[in-house]
């Protein structure tokens, strides 16, 4: 009986360590991507079309990695549902990851919109310049 209880505690501890490792990796990845999502390269009008294409690829990368974040979330929820001894700690980590993911998603959407607006403004300005050249 003591052996069974000890074995269960060790398995619970292993599951917690694996969850923490996966959560740490997901957090590090999100924080790295936040740097890209929050840079303000849209303010520099050079090569806006290229920046827009890079951002579209960035958004595709975010979407491709959403499953990884969902996997960590599902694992954590499973541990909580199974009444893991560290359920409160796991819940806090899940809240942290969820908040970071929302922040990343919002920042990426905002940057994409600003890049599109800057590109449209640049196209408009070129059109105005062309009309001015034609009128001279």
How does this model look, in words?
Helix 1 packs antiparallel against helix 2, helix 1 packs parallel to helix 3 and helix 2 packs antiparallel against helix 3. 88% of the residues lie in helices and 0% in strands. The mean pLDDT is 91. It is built from 3 helices and no strands. It is an all-alpha fold.
Label this structure with key terms.
single chain; 136 residues; mainly alpha; rod-shaped
Offer a quick outline of the entry.
The protein is mainly α and 136 residues long.
Secondary-structure content class? mainly alpha
pLDDT averaged residue by residue: 91
| 3D shape | rod-shaped
The amount of helix comes to: over 70%
Query: pLDDT under 50 segments (min length 5)?
Result: none
H/E element order: HHH
DSSP summary, beta strand count: 0
Radius of gyration (CA) equals 23 Å
Q: Determine the strand fraction and express it as a percent band.
A: under 5%
Q: Main β-sheet, in a few words?
A: none
Count helical runs.
3
Distance between the termini: 95 Å
